[in-house]
Amino acid sequence: MKAGQSAPQAEEHFKNGKYPFIRVQHIDNEDYRITNWDLINDAAVKDYHLKLSKGTIIFPKSGAAVHLEKKSDVTF
Questions:
Q1: What predicted TM-score, i.e. pTM, was given to this entire model?
Q2: Relative to the CA of 28, which of 42, 66, 69, 74 has its CA 20 to 30 Å away?
Q3: Which of 72, 62, 57, 67 is nearest to 27 (CA)?
């Protein structure tokens, strides 16, 4: 199990993005599928040490998102 950190916020991390970045808001409320995502670039992957593999389970660990009880697995 690995905890993430704050999501990339700087516009420079999304310019010419090619990697999907999933937020709790991207998980459907009814069937818990990932329905949308942001695209981040190489700089964001490097700066935030991001790595996600197929089959990874994602869920919120803090803040108001915890109360939504959303979770999903990575299938793409």
A1: 0.67
A2: 42
A3: 72
Question: Which two structure tokens, joined as six digits, stand for 1?
Answer: 């199990």
21 located within any domain: yes
**Tokens representing 69?**
């009880």
- Return the residue matching tokens 């040490």: 49
Q: How many domains does the chain have?
A: 1
- CB count within 10 Å of CB 36 equals 11
Give the model confidence (pLDDT) of 28-65 as tens digits.
878 878 888 999 999 999 998 887 777 776 666 665 55
Residue 6 lies in a domain: no
The boundaries of the domain holding residue 18 are 11-73
Q: In this structure, which amino acid lies at residue 71?
A: K
56 in any annotated domain: yes
Residue 6 has which token pair?
């704050």
